[in-house]
Amino acid sequence: MTQLPLASTAIVLTLAALLTPPLVHAQDATPKRSAYAEGGGPKYIDGKNGKAIEFGPEAAMIRIPAYSELRPLEGTTVCAWVKPTVKTEGKQTVFRIEDGGDRRFMAIGGAKGIWGLWFGLGIAGTYTEISADYDPKKLIDGQWHHVAGTFDGKKMRLYIDGVKVSELAQPGKLAPGNPTIGSIGAYNGRHEPFHGGIDDMRVYTGALTDEQVAEIAAGKAEPVPEAVVGHWKLDGNLDNEADKKAEATK
Questions:
Q1: Percentage of the chain with pLDDT > 70?
Q2: Which of 177, 147, 149, 181 is closest to 162 using CA atoms?
Q3: What is the pTM of this model?
Q4: Who's near 81: CB < 8 A, 6+ residues apart?
Q5: What is the DSSP string of 187-246?
């Protein structure tokens, strides 16, 4: 077989390197989406399940890296266990991706003459909030409570302890937004901090049904594990269980 001159061989190898996609090792293929703390370490307390994080005005800030799966377009569910300790006049952030009119957030607290649970999304070019007026004595009672907000492309819904407490018609698609870092327990630093504990923070693609939200609040098995796109148990660490799921299915 005719041998290529050395110079020609070098050119061929260079072209091959340009045309051949680089190998990606399996351990590097899964995005790492664990949360991380700023301004000190998180304070872990006894949670609803295992450990949880205690938040407050001086607590560490818990950040969530930006990734597209965290912002599904057709529908979403955001839920967590909370144990608030203080009634505030303003809102207390549970979860927030601050992105102007395309923000996604959940909070408890007071605003516009209402004290209770809040859920906000950018839908069809319009930022929309739904709220549920709720007796603070029932939420600030030293117990853990499950809070959830859902959107299915037609309606926004709010749940407390597995019971639907508010519903609002708002058809449309969710905005993809910008690659914005999210947060648990506060936003943009220590604004609107949560006072108390937060445990088992989850984000789903698509809206859970009334029955599925009730199952989670009742402590039953995860109803649709394949739909979880973000899951921070906060069980003594800031790991994202969605990463572990992706690793297991590779």
A1: 85
A2: 147
A3: 0.86
A4: 47, 48, 49, 52, 144, 145, 146, 147, 197, 198, 199, 200
A5: BTTTBS---EEEEEEEEEESPPPHHHHHHHHTT---S-GGGEEEEE--SSS---HHHHHH
- Left if phi > 0, otherwise alpha if psi is -120 to 50, otherwise beta: which for 152? alpha
Specify the CATH number for 6-248; select among 3.20.20.80, 3.40.50.300, 1.10.287.130, 2.60.120.200: 2.60.120.200
Q: Which residues pair with 52 in a beta bridge?
A: 45
Q: Which residue has the tokens 């989850």?
A: 202
Average pLDDT in the chain: 87
Over residues 180-235, the pLDDT tens digits come to 999 999 998 899 999 999 999 999 999 999 999 999 999 998 899 999 999 999 99
Delimit the domains of the chain by residue range: 6-248
What tokens were used for 85?
A: 């300790």
* Burial profile 36-50: b = 16 or more Cβ within 10 angstroms, e = fewer: eeeeeebebeebbee
Q: Which two tokens stand for residue 32?
A: 């790492």
Beta bridge partners of 191: 187
